[in-house]
Amino acid sequence: MTHPPRPKTQSITHQVPEHLVDAFLQTADEFFAARRGQTSAQRAAELREQDRDAGLNSLVYLLEAAERDSGQAGVVAHWL
């Protein structure tokens, strides 16, 4: 089995103002994601789905806490 040759790489160092680091990293991530065939819109949809799943898991946890026979149950039930 032969492996295709790896493309040449070059190390790049760039100084970014501290207040722009997050934006710079996001832009770089979007660039490389698009190169792998995933657009920023696809990535955003994936993140929204993950957030939704995490939210549902949290809601299930709270519902179970509200149904328990503990001191917290009434507080959680009232909050829900």
Describe what this molecule looks like in 3D.
The structure is a single chain. This protein is 65% helix and 0% strand. It is elongated. The mean pLDDT is 83. With 80 residues, the chain is mostly helical. It has a domain of 52 residues. The longest helix has 28 residues. The protein starts with 20 loop residues before the first helix and ends with a helix.
Write the H/E string, N to C.
HHH
The strand count comes to 0
Largest sheet: none
- What are the segments in which pLDDT stays under 50 over at least 5 consecutive residues? none
- How confident is the prediction overall: mean pLDDT? 83
Q: Helix segment count?
A: 3
Structural class determined from secondary elements? mainly alpha
Distance N terminus to C terminus?
59 Å
**Beta fraction:** under 5%
Q: Quick one: overall form?
A: elongated
- Radius of gyration equals 22 Å
Q: In percent, how helical is the residue content?
A: 55-70%
Short synopsis of the structure:
The protein has 80 residues and is an all-alpha fold. It contains three helices and no strands.
Key structural traits:
80 residues, elongated
Secondary structure elements and pairings:
Blueprint: H1 21-35, H2 40-67, H3 71-79
Helix pairs in contact: 2-3
